[in-house]
Amino acid sequence: MASASASLSDERFGLDRRITLLGPLPLDCGAALAPVQIAYETYGTLNADKSNAILICHALTGDQYVASTHPITGKPGWWQRLVGEGKPVDPSRDFIICANVIGSCMGSSGPATVNPATGEPWGMDFPVLSIADMVRAQALLLDYLGIPVLSAVIGGSMGGMQAISWPVLYPDRVRAALVIASTARHSAQNIAFHEVGRQAIMADPRWRKGAYYADGDVPASGLAVARMAAHITYLSEAGLTEKFGRRLQDKSGKDCSGSSFGFDADFQIQSYLRHQGISFVDRFDANSYLYITRAMDYFDLAEPHDGVLAKAFMGTRTRFCLISFDTDWLYPTAESRRIVHALNAAGAEVSFVELSSPFGHDAFLLECPEMNRIVDGFLRAGANA
Amino acid sequence: MASASASLSDERFGLDRRITLLGPLPLDCGAALAPVQIAYETYGTLNADKSNAILICHALTGDQYVASTHPITGKPGWWQRLVGEGKPVDPSRDFIICANVIGSCMGSSGPATVNPATGEPWGMDFPVLSIADMVRAQALLLDYLGIPVLSAVIGGSMGGMQAISWPVLYPDRVRAALVIASTARHSAQNIAFHEVGRQAIMADPRWRKGAYYADGDVPASGLAVARMAAHITYLSEAGLTEKFGRRLQDKSGKDCSGSSFGFDADFQIQSYLRHQGISFVDRFDANSYLYITRAMDYFDLAEPHDGVLAKAFMGTRTRFCLISFDTDWLYPTAESRRIVHALNAAGAEVSFVELSSPFGHDAFLLECPEMNRIVDGFLRAGANA
To answer: Helical H runs in B86-171?
Structure first.
């Protein structure tokens, strides 16, 4: 969708849209990453005064293909309901950037990319990352693209953690932040679910302390179990009941009335989860799952500010919009409200809406006209200011 | 605690309190189990008119040691807060029976016991069980003990599934049923969590389709992950936050202020979960975990009654008491209320209390004076009737 006549075009950046920056990028863990590879997609054209750039931040298992076909799965962009022609984030008006977070596995630096010191994949020698490190890498990309200030940063779930971190780390580089179904810190329960997933991966003998790249015999079983456990947290109890209830299925996947009294996937919810686990393995790296979940667990925006969240936002001139979903038990509304309270205490401009949805945390990725209207209204209000 | 002068004493049943009945016990899956081994504990003395027998039903990973020391862990009885001298269920007044459910691994017939057809452990050739099958095995034990009618049946969690099933399966054999932190059916979310646990076990290469008894090289990693995932559901989000929050610890397990930026158990919740997983492996059999979770998933008391729960209770003369906990998200109050509605529709005598606790599902096993008062009052009301 990028126009070839603009200064930023497909031609300039090549088709794979992957840059290698020299770095070093200083990381929160004390190490520095060099070089820094960033794979990204853009949609639309940067305008002359460079004022129309919107950064979209992806979630744990997301990627840069926010509004274009995923090269492995062939599925449409993961947020094409929000991003696209005629949508609230529109490439005919906005210059849209979405970058694979560092630590991930779709082209940006991560455990599967090459450690220049050894010429081999990093594996578990890749430095431990934080959400702030991911944001700093995005800022490097914006430098490279010549974008001084973002019109807006938008993210859901882990993308929301990045979006809320942007104005804290770069107060002068972002005019508006949209934080959806997210949180300013990971709770004990959030950490617990991630720990189960990591233990499942590390318990898989094929994990081999992360050194499985040479023969490609990946810890698929462990990663699938991790994905299954996580997937439960993405859905609401009511949504699960509505979608699956206690319905049984026969071996072909159809509804049926009799249970097998065995360990096959009698219940539809079982085969759904198994499918989620197995299909995930084809598109995601187990080590990346370890690194990104760990970064999320470390996330606590208040921590570097004496534990007072409001201090993180003091003096901010960014406009904020927070959206939560009433059935989201992963990052419940109370967490968004906590952010709103802190923003209010810091004197920030903030709007907040809790939307009703039966679909739990996943709601932000699904058809939600109300969410689209709010995002559109919030972005347009900024354009008119 | 059993008196040697009574007709039912330690002397009569031997110290290990394990009986082998000829059977066959017809099972819901269509198979029949023979012989039927039942390991159990009793406390107190059966009175002359055999009217003081109380059956306690244990939960998924529980056992018969309700009020006496566990032979493997050395820990005190799992419900000694409720059962014991001066407690609501008192061996100086009641004859208390607790039997290891069939399918389990503390002496009753299960995948680790010997298949008479082969002389080897059953493994996955053990027939798939239901909650009703467990109850029918308990009825066999009562026959053997010469107890025609139970004064009461009491159970929490999966024990509550048995307790609520007792009056349905044996309407003339139980005067009162106490159902705590339980449900009349497993929800899609309940099934989903169990499925993750089973997949973790079956993904462990040491599981070997359940045939790991010969060399004792058990699927410990998979079982530990299963336990960790389940354990999250036993605790409330608020309880986890209160107990662990985002607190870090050093390698010795003490509180500390700095994170390691690694994959060690930085957070206290991580090491707690890992400990839960590892210690569970010492006392529980992975195949038993598969069979018992499956029995729970199949549990739907309304299903054999055209899906109408009230029909299950029609004509009942049993008195019921239901207790739920407000932070229990595994079997939330709504599930208890559903049972109460059905009992009301069936004209049954039922009382119901939702208790407040920060501890989620686990609350029924913890110190809870209010629960004790309710149990005591309910049992005494029956004695006075």
So the answer is: 131-145, 158-169
* Multiple choice CATH, B190-292, 3.30.565.10, 3.40.50.720, 3.30.428.10, 1.10.1740.110: 1.10.1740.110
List, by residue range, all CATH 1.10.1740.110 domains of chain A. Answer: 190-292
Q: Measured between CB atoms, does A262 come within 8 Å of chain B? A: yes
Token pair in block for residue A336:
């968004």
* Closest listed residue to residue A206, CA positions, set A193, A197, A215: A215
Kindly report the backbone phi and psi dihedral angles of residue B198, in degrees, each rounded to the nearest multiple of 5, phi listed first: -65, -40
Architecture of the structural domain at B10-187+298-384: 3-Layer(aba) Sandwich (3.40)
CB contact under 8 A, B187 and A29: no
Residue B262 pLDDT: 84
Residues from chain A that touch B188, judged by Cβ atoms under 8 A, are 237, 240-241, 243-246, 267, 269
A289 falls in which pLDDT band (50, 70, 90)? very high
**Pairs across A and B, CB distance < 8 A:** 151
Write down the CATH number for the domain with range A10-187+300-384. 3.40.50.1820
Q: What is the mean pLDDT of chain B?
A: 92
Roughly what angle, to the nearest 10 degrees, separates helices B286-298 and B158-169?
50
ipTM (interface predicted TM): 0.91
Active-site annotation of B, residues: 157, 328, 361
Distance CA A138, CA A150 (A): 11
Smallest CA–CA distance from A31 into chain B, residue: B261
